[in-house]
Structures are given as C-alpha cells and as structure tokens.
Design brief:
The chain is an alpha/beta fold and 389 residues long. It is built from 15 helices and 12 strands. The strands form 3 sheets. A 5-stranded parallel β-sheet has the order 2-1-3-4-5, sandwiched between helices. Strands 7-8-11-6-12 form a 5-stranded parallel β-sheet. Strand 1, helix 1 and strand 2 form a beta-alpha-beta unit. It is globular.
C-alpha cells in the first residue's frame, strides 16, 4: 500500500501531521530517527516522507545520506518541515520531488493542506469536504460498472473533473477519454464530429473521418452540456445508445462501438423534458445512474484544497507555491463564490499578481471586482474634478 512516513525526533510533533494526512486519504505511520534502521518498505507502492528539520539533518549526515535513505524507503516525495527563519541546505542527488515548508503556528493549517495535496497522485481530485468525499466514493462504485451516467450541477462545479475521476477508476482507464462540449459546437458540425463521415458526404468532406464515437471506442465519451443538443441529433444519439453502433454521414454500414457515455448538464433535465426541449426516452437512457455536483458555497471544505491546487498550477508546482495568511483563508471561505471554481481561479490569479511572490494576504484577494471597478471609476472622477479646477 501507499504510505506516508512522518519522521521526527519527537513523535508528539508528528501527531497533528498524521491526523491531517489521514483525513485527506493518506495512510500514515510515525517513527523517530532512532528507530529508522528497523523500518522496511517492502510491499509499499509509494512512500512519501515528511521530515522535521532535525530528522532531515540527521539523515543528511548519515552514511547513506538523505537521497540514500529515500531510495531505501522507496520515497519519491519528500516534505521537510523547516523551522521558521531557518532553512538548511539539502545536499545530494534526489530524483523525486522535494517540498520545503516552514509553518508558524498561525500558518499550520495552510501548510498541512499543501503537504496533503503535494503527496496526492497528480490526478487526484482536490477535496476536503464530506459532501465531495461522498460523491467520489459513489463515483468509484459506479465506475466498476458500465452504466451510463448523468452528471448535473451548476457551471464551474467540477463536472468534468468528476467525469475524469470516474474514467480513471474504471476498467477503461487505459483507453481514451474524450470530452465534447455540445453547447460550443454548431449543430451541423456536431453531427459530423460525433458520427464521422464518408468522403463526399458534404461539401468539404474530401477525406473520411471516423468521428468521436469511434475514436472513443473502448474508453469513455463525455458529452458536456448534453441538454443543448439539437432534437434531430438527440434521436440519432438515442439509437447509438440503444444499438451500440454508429453510422457515419454518407455511409450505409453501421460500425459497432464499445463506449461508456457520461452526459452532463447545468440544467434541471426533467424541466427540459417537460418543456419539450429534450427527449424523454433519451433522458431515461442517460439517467441510468444520476450524480450531482454542488456549488462551492455548499461545500466550503473544498475551497482551500482547490485553491492550493490552483496556486500550484499557476506557479509552476508545489515547491514554488506561495504562503497564505489565515486572514486570507478566512476571506476565501467566507465568500459564497457564485462563479464557483472559475471565479476562485480568477481571484487567485489576481492575488498572485498583487502579492508579487510574498505571502498572499486578505487584501490581495480582490473578490468583488464590481466594487473595485466602482472605486477606480470614483477615484478617476475625483481626479478629473480636481484637474478641472
């Protein structure tokens, strides 16, 4: 199994770290430096090491050296918890990733969450809220089958993220995952894109194209915003689901396909059915197993893990991620985020510009841009009045 080893000269110092990491889905173990020689990594798929500064110094001066101990323990990710204001130099070649943290008591929560995300698999879903953990547990169970999934939720709540998680957890994980946004492609193009076409099927069809249904054969096809699909395409799509075969435009022969379909929408689908905008028979074909994502305001425990993942994305990775004050975290978690994750990402990108490499503070989080723009306009109007005197 995968194990994170927390190593320190004082075991009591590790308890808070192991508790937090365990809450985030990591198996953990504690040891002091004196007992390290008796440890074995047999059977561990991957080991992360979380070292106090004193423990890191002890290993660095050992005959094996820190890189040697990492190889022995099969560790590919190391976290060194430095003392604030005291960062010693690590020496030696190490092929894995190293993260240095120096949390004060005030910044411990942020540092612990950064550590948890750093130790995650790169494709792991950023989550910290019980609602999301429940959704992911359910999605993992659904992934074991081949049933069609209907995933609904507000825009920007991670429907594609959950879809990818479901694909990776399924037996189709090594096969293609292809996503198509039905709202972003004109109807005529969407039909050709999905079903493919033969040469000469329409003007400009100079070469045949097998289409996305066939390209996703063996894997998973995500049809994002399926509620925007035109009625005539809904009828053709229904036949694909029923017969498990597709006929390209201009063709006369059907081709068998093996595709797991996940459909998403930000609308309440039964309302679309009652309004006549979406076929009832297609709805029930898609809604074999319904899943739902919640707005960020309804899962506040996800805000900090998602924020950390976004900061890592925009700063080149966890080793260069900036610190964040408790006041900034409180401000993030107190806001309702009507734009969900996309709005959160915009706010964090602005904060990175304003902080300039220093810790992100509450004042760097320009959340209400309408108020900010109004202040700028008010300042500009006052400046013009002064200039006109």
């Amino acid at each position: 199994m995968s194990m994170v080893l927390c190593l320190t000269d004082h075991l009591a110092d590790s308890e808070a770290w192991t508790t937090h990491l365990h809450m985030r889905g990591h198996e953990t173990a504690m040891s002091d430096v004196k007992s390290l020689a008796t440890l074995k990594a047999d059977g561990w798929e991957r080991t992360g090491l979380l070292l106090s500064q004193d423990a890191a110094k002890t290993l660095a001066t050992d005959a094996l050296g820190l890189p040697g101990w990492c190889r022995k323990l099969k560790a590919d990710r190391i976290i060194v918890v430095d003392k604030p204001g005291d960062k010693f130099q690590l020496k030696g070649e190490f092929n894995g990733s190293v993260l240095r943290l120096a949390p004060s008591k005030q910044g411990w929560r942020y540092a612990a969450e950064v550590a948890a995300r750093f130790l995650d698999d790169e494709q792991a879903v950023a989550a910290g809220d019980p609602q999301t953990f429940n959704l992911l547990r359910l999605a993992r169970r659904v992934a074991a089958s081949d049933v069609t999934v209907m995933l609904v939720g507000p825009t920007g709540t991670g429907k594609e993220v959950v879809s990818k998680f479901l694909h990776r957890a399924s037996k189709r994980a090594r096969e293609p995952f292809i996503a198509v946004n039905c709202a972003a492609v004109p109807d005529t193009m969407l039909e050709a894109l999905l079903f493919g076409y033969e040469k000469g099927a329409f003007t400009g069809a100079h070469t045949p194209n097998k289409g996305i249904f066939r390209a996703a054969d063996g894997g998973t096809l995500l049809l994002d915003e399926v509620s925007e699909m035109a009625p005539h395409l809904q009828a053709k799509f229904l036949r694909v689901l029923q017969e498990k075969e597709v006929t390209p435009l201009g063709g006369s022969k059907s081709v068998a396909i093996d595709v797991r379909v996940i459909a998403t929408s930000n609308r309440y689908m039964m309302d679309e059915v009652k309004a006549g905008r979406f076929r009832e028979d297609l709805y029930y074909r898609l809604n074999v197993f319904p899943l739902a994502t919640q707005s960020l305001a309804d899962r506040p425990g996800d805000i900090l893990p998602i924020a950390i993942s976004l900061l890592a994305k925009h700063t080149g990775g966890f080793p260069t991620i900036p610190e964040m004050t408790d006041e900034a975290i409180d401000k993030l978690e107190a806001y309702t985020w009507p734009g969900n994750v996309r709005e959160l990402e915009n706010v964090l990108q602005r904060a990175l510009v304003l902080s300039g490499g220093t810790p992100i503070e509450a004042d760097h989080l320009m959340i209400d841009m309408h108020e900010h723009i109004a202040n700028i306009e008010d300042f500009d109007a006052k400046r013009k009045r002064v200039a006109a005197r």
